[in-house]
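Methods — Computational structure assignment.
A single polypeptide chain was analysed. Its primary sequence is given first, followed by the predicted tertiary structure written as structure tokens.
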Amino acid sequence: MKVLLAEDDSMLGASMERGLRMAGFAVEWVHDGLQAQVALQGQAYDLLLLDIGLPGQDGLQLLHWLRAEHLPVPVLVVSARDAVGDRVAGLNLGADDYLSKPFDLDELIARMHAVARRVSGRAPSEMQLGRLVMRPLRREALLDNQLVNLSTREYDLLLALMERPGNVLSREQLETQLYGWQDEVSSNAVEVHVHHLRRKLGSAWIKNVRGVGYKLVEAQ
């Protein structure tokens, strides 16, 4: 699970980042609301851990912007503000859960998994572009009603493109979809996966925009 941690407390943030990495999460840590907004505009995350009392732009402002932009990332608010009004405000603005500080790391991880399970239940059961169909909950891809045998990386790359058909995704954006921050990624990893996908689907489905990235288009 790829997590964006927005926390301005250096000691707590470092502790959370270390503990979550040890638990197997890929974590990017930002220290203020503006950095978080930039990160969310540029990359896809499986979960946002959001402190409310952030400098630059506070967590509630960021949450309001996030939902106004219809970005689907689930949000777990982690805040020292534990008044009922604060919790209600966060949830009403679109947070998926609210955890008050101080907290136990095991509880945080359990809440993160619970949010992920709920969100997966809201995922579309089927996505279609012409003759190509993807079923995210089953992790299936079908071309002309025939199952396509894809590796984990190939499936994740195709899903990233299918979520934004016709839009160009850079190599860096695709790498963040496929790999955690701790993974070592070869310089041509995305190109290799694209080559394999083209071989299995047909070269017309994935277009290369020179110097920019790749996009999924309907092959005739």
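Note: Helices lie at 10-22, 33-42, 59-68, 84-92, 105-122, 152-162, 171-178, 189-201.
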